Amino acid sequence: MHENISKQLLQEMKIRRPAVHCLTNTVVQALTANTLLAVGAIPSMSSDIAEVADFTKSADALLVNIGTLDGDLKTSIKAAIAAARDNNIPWIFDPVFIDRSRPRAAYAKELLSLGPALIRGNKGEIALLGGSPAELARKTGAIVAMTGVTDIVTDGNMEITVEGGHELMSLVTGIGCAGTALLGACLAIVPPEKRLQAVAAGLSLLGEAGEKAATQAAGPGTFAALILDQIYQISQSSLQERKE
């Protein structure tokens, strides 16, 4: 199921080229942008309070990643989310490291009331926000993706598990963050009722790319480049299938 949906999503991605505005941590900006470009999406990254609302209004999805959080970014995040809500643009929340900082966790819980379309985190982050993935999904109305050895995606009623990936993915800073941006691009091109399947398909794509990259990689350094190549090649292959 995920394979067919992934192909359809990638075909639409290349045709529609959704814009994803990314308020993300400074460590992962380049990898995040390159991942979006590899599937045909258009990234932007400005967090300047003077223009963040305009960038968000002209985007098809908004990513909020709090990996490197400071006061200025907090202000920009709120302005961007307000613009997304006013313009019916889905926003995606990646609550990075909230289990390491009580102020960060408190800020993350504030954002939950602002209607994210998707919350993606690891087991500890999801538990801190709302217990189980299904509980958090019911509490917020968001799709929840809890990633790990096996990924769990739920809307609070239905649940999809996604297998795949490779341990090298955990040894490259930003693979998960870039993956969340990819999920944002997926949500940008589907109606709300298709979001659960789109998130599962996006995670499946990332896992497949990781597995293929690992067969050629000598270690984390080459893997980082190879997973981008694989995401691009899978995307191009899907587009070629559509033409045929």
TrEMBL record:
Q: Which domain of life is it from?
A: Bacteria
- Which residues make up the binding site for ATP? R120, T147
Q: Which InterPro entries match?
A: Hyethyz_kinase (IPR000417), Ribokinase-like (IPR029056)
Annotated substrate binding lies at M45, G174
Pfam hit, one: HK
Q: Indicate yes or no for the key word Nucleotide-binding.
A: yes
Protein name as catalogued: Hydroxyethylthiazole kinase
Species this protein is from: Sneathiella sedimenti
